[in-house]
Design a protein that fits this description.
Strand content: under 5%
Order of helices and strands: HHH
Structural class: mainly alpha
Distance between the termini: 23 Å
Length: about 160
């Protein structure tokens, strides 16, 4: 997933939060309009007919359903973001595991070459093919380490 896609998801989540806030404020206004009919002091100022009250109740129901849908989609979007985060973390862990295995495989011949590169008398030090034998040992040790990591599914 690209960073641009993640930013678009965040913009969508921000829009859902703003839409939810607007629906909540609309809910408060609609509830106040519904209470006007029962308020005795406003009876002469604002007349509400029976059909208007039914329509207002329908609008309140639709507004509540819209709020529930927005909250549901916000939860889905949040879970999607968590899932993407888990996938990215899992991919990063796999790459780090691979790099650690490669580092260990490269470290094996380094250790062997360092051991035989000391300025002290060593076995194979007087042998004309000593360098090739040491490199062969390092190569075999690296192959054994690579086989071990391949067998344990580190690659």
């Amino acid at each position: 997933m690209k960073n641009n896609d993640i930013l678009r998801l965040m913009e969508l989540q921000k829009g859902l939060i703003n839409f939810n806030a607007a629906l909540r404020s609309n809910d408060a206004v609609l509830e106040k309009l519904l209470r006007i009919r029962t308020n005795k002091s406003l009876v002469g100022i604002l007349d509400i007919y029976e059909e208007d009250e039914d329509l207002l109740e329908d609008v309140i129901i639709e507004n509540k359903q819209a709020r529930e849908m927005v909250e549901m989609y916000s939860q889905i979007l949040s879970r999607m973001a968590d899932t993407f985060s888990s996938i990215i973390s899992n991919n990063q862990n796999m790459v780090m595991k691979f790099l650690a295995a490669v580092t260990i495989i490269i470290a094996v011949p380094t250790v062997i070459a360092s051991f035989f590169g000391m300025n002290v008398p060593m076995p194979l030090g007087e042998n004309a093919h000593g360098f090739l034998i040491v490199m062969g040992i390092a190569f075999v040790a690296s192959c054994v380490a690579a086989y071990f990591f391949w067998k344990n599914q580190m690659f």
